[in-house]
Backbone:
């Protein structure tokens, strides 16, 4: 989401406790990969992400590819 990208861009952890661990894990991977920029893509332009998000919401189960 745009909120998650904003946290990564500014290198600030979320105030939400359940997101802090995810932020830290992501930060480690990002630093190892050398990510230089972030961009947000609206769901309307990313049909795969939209389909996966809908599947997760409908089945109340997370999926990873």
Residues:
């Amino acid at each position: 989401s745009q909120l998650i990208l904003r946290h990564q861009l500014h290198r600030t952890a979320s105030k939400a406790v359940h997101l802090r661990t995810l932020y830290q894990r992501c930060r480690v991977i990002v630093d190892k990969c050398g990510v230089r920029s972030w961009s947000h893509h609206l769901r309307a332009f990313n049909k795969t992400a939209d389909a996966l998000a809908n599947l997760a919401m409908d089945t109340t189960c997370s999926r990873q590819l």
About this structure: Residues 42 and 53 are 12 Å apart (CA to CA). Residues 17-33 form the longest helix (17 residues). The two ends are 17 Å apart (CA to CA).
